[in-house]
Description:
Elements: E1 12-19, E2 27-28, E3 32-33, E4 37-48, E5 53-60, E6 69-75, E7 87-93, H1 94-104, E8 110-117, E9 123-132
Antiparallel strand pairs: 1-9, 2-8, 3-8, 4-7, 4-9, 5-6, 5-8
Amino acid sequence: MATDNQQLRAELVVTGYDFDPDATTATDIGWIDAQDVNALLVKFQRTVGTSALTFLIVGNTLADGSGTDTTIKTITLAAQPNAVADIAFGEVTRGEILQAASDAGVEIRGLSAVLTFATGTDEGAVTYIVKSTHTKLNNTADVVA
C-alpha cells in the first residue's frame, strides 16, 4: 500500500525558476508572499557561462513586487559560481526580514532573489526553499506544464 507522509512537503515550500535574463541588469527571480515565511533559502546553479554573479535577497511592500524594494541581504560569495553545475546559496530569516522592514520603515509583503550576471548570455536555475510558519499538506506540490 502506497502512502504519502509529506514530512518535508508539509513543512517546506519548494519552487524552481529558470534564470535566462539575456541581460546584465538586476533581475527579480520570482516574488513570493512573505507572510508565512519563517526562512528563505535560495539556491543558484550555473547552467551556462562563466561571468561574475551579484546575488541579493530583497523585500517589497507588495507581495507581487510592484511596490518599493528593500534590500534584506547582499549575499557575499566566497567564490564565484563560474562553471556549469557550480552552486551558491543565500538565506534570510524572519528576523532579518523584520529588521530590514523596521530599518526601512516599511512593511515587507513580498520576497525575491535578485541576480545579476556580468555577461548577458549566461544562464542558471534558481530554487527557493521556504520554511513556512505553519505546516499543511501540499505546501510543496508538483507543477507540470
